[in-house]
Amino acid sequence: MAALQRELIERKGWIRQDDFALAYSLARITPGTNLLAFCAATGARILGLWGALVAVLAISVPSTVLTVLITAGYETWRSNASVTAAVGGTVAAVVGMMWASVWLLVSPHLRRPMQVLRALIFTGGAFLAVWKLGLTPVQVIALAALLGFLWKEPAAE
Question: What residue ranges do the domains of the chain occupy?
Answer without folding.
Answer: 2-83
